[in-house]
């Protein structure tokens, strides 16, 4: 494949599909540059005094890691001045972040989980950044949280970076999914996979099995069948993976198929599951669907859900279409 840069890809995509206006192209390039900076900070590890906790709790009630805060600041500072955003929202911030008055406001709204998989930071396991882009409502004045509460189907772009053995950026603007690898020597993102497609069938599943005693019956039935393999009603045996970094599990599924599950369970019926709709489930659902997969909350398509709160959680079943359809069907029985 001809190696082209992210910039060239975006320019050629705009020329051929006219779906990436200049401000959206600027937004994507600014976020990609911020991910480069985060990758550099993450890569320092103990040498950079960036490990460990900051002894502060975020809105999720989770103790923030130093790198959570550093990554959040990097994304805020990178995006404030460009004139492409009306406001931002982050897993690490209780309320939305307005553009300072000294800068012009733009027509897009950026949501992100600045560093997903934080429990893996201090043990050198892959982590990442997830982002979602919405358009500001027509005629919007001062942005409010309500302006962000749009279903995932309204996203105009979504992506994630994985800070792993390679640093990769996976992106969709609604015309398929492409992967860029960071060339550290040149400091540029290089197109390395075009039009990624998730295999419809799979033999691999991802779930935190330590929660099994809390699962609702449809999930228990589905996972038991996977574990039974050919000895049960399935035609094949299955393998399991759980990295505890959604970005890493989803990237594996994009490349070789699989189903990722974070179900709701009996412990907190009013907080279904652990993953957040606006800046984890929605962007990943957009990417997965653009790659030929499926993403539901066990009943509904993730991207059809009308958000009620900025940090609301949602059960997540996403990946190879045949498996997501099967486990979703079990929820209907
Ligand atoms: P558990 C990371 O904290 C995260 O939000 C996702 O990236 C990941 O899939 C999940 O939580 C891991 O949750 O309960 O296995 O630690």
The ligands bound in this entry are:
6-O-phosphono-alpha-D-fructofuranose
So what's the oligomer here?
Answer: single chain
Give the total of beta strands.
Answer: 15
Rounded to an integer in angstroms, the radius of gyration calculated over CA atoms is 19 Å
**Structure class:** alpha+beta
Strand coverage percent: 15-25%
Principal-axis shape: globular
CATH topology assignment of the largest domain:
Fructose-1,6-Bisphosphatase, Chain A, domain 1
Q: Based on the structure given, which CATH architecture of the largest domain is correct?
A: 2-Layer Sandwich
Domain count, please report it: 2
Description of the molecule:
Homotetramer. Belongs to the FBPase class 1 family. Its cofactor is Mg(2+). By secondary structure, the protein is α+β, with helices and mostly antiparallel strands. It folds into 2 domains: 6-193, 2-Layer Sandwich (Fructose-1,6-Bisphosphatase, Chain A, domain 1); 204-332, D-Maltodextrin-Binding Protein, domain 2 (3-Layer(aba) Sandwich), CATH 3.40.190.80. The protein is built from 8 helices and 15 strands. The strands form 3 sheets. The chain has an 8-stranded mixed beta sheet with strand order 4-3-5-6-7-8-9-10, with helices on both faces. It has a 5-stranded mixed beta sheet with strand order 12-11-13-15-14, with helices on both faces. 6-O-phosphono-alpha-D-fructofuranose is lined by residues 116-119, 208, 244-246, 274-275. Residues 116-119, 208, 244-246, 274-275 line the site of 6-O-phosphono-alpha-D-fructofuranose.
């Amino acid at each position: 494949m001809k190696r082209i840069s992210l910039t060239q890809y975006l320019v050629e995509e705009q020329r051929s599909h006219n779906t990436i206006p200049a401000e959206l192209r600027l937004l994507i390039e600014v976020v990609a540059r911020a991910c480069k900076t985060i990758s550099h900070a993450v890569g320092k590890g103990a040498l950079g005094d960036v490990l460990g906790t900051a002894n502060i709790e975020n809105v999720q009630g989770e103790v923030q890691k130093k790198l959570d805060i550093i990554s959040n600041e990097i994304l805020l500072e990178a995006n404030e001045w460009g004139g492409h955003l009306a406001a931002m929202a982050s897993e690490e911030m209780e309320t939305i972040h307005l553009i300072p008055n000294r800068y012009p406001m733009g027509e897009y709204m950026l949501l992100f989980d600045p560093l997903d998989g934080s429990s893996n930071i201090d043990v050198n396991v892959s982590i990442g950044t997830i982002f979602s882009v919405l358009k500001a409502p027509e005629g919007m004045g001062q942005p409010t949280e309500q302006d962000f509460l749009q279903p995932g189907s309204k996203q105009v772009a979504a992506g994630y970076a994985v800070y792993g053995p390679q640093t990769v950026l996976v992106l969709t603007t609604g015309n398929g999914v492409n992967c860029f690898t960071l060339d550290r020597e040149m400091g540029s993102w290089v197109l390395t996979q075009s039009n990624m497609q998730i295999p419809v069938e799979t033999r691999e599943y991802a779930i935190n099995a330590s929660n099994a005693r809390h699962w609702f019956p449809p999930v228990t039935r589905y996972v038991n069948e996977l574990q039974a393999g050919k000895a049960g009603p399935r035609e094949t045996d299955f393998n399991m993976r759980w990295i505890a970094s959604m970005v890493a599990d989803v990237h594996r599924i994009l490349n070789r198929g699989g189903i990722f599950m974070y179900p709701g369970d009996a412990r907190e019926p009013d907080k279904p599951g652990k993953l957040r709709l606006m800046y984890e489930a929605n962007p990943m659902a957009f990417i997965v669907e653009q790659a030929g997969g499926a993403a539901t909350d066990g009943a509904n398509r993730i991207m059809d859900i009308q958000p009620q709160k900025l940090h609301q959680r949602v059960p997540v079943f996403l990946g190879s279409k045949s498996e997501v359809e099967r486990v979703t069907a079990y929820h209907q029985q």
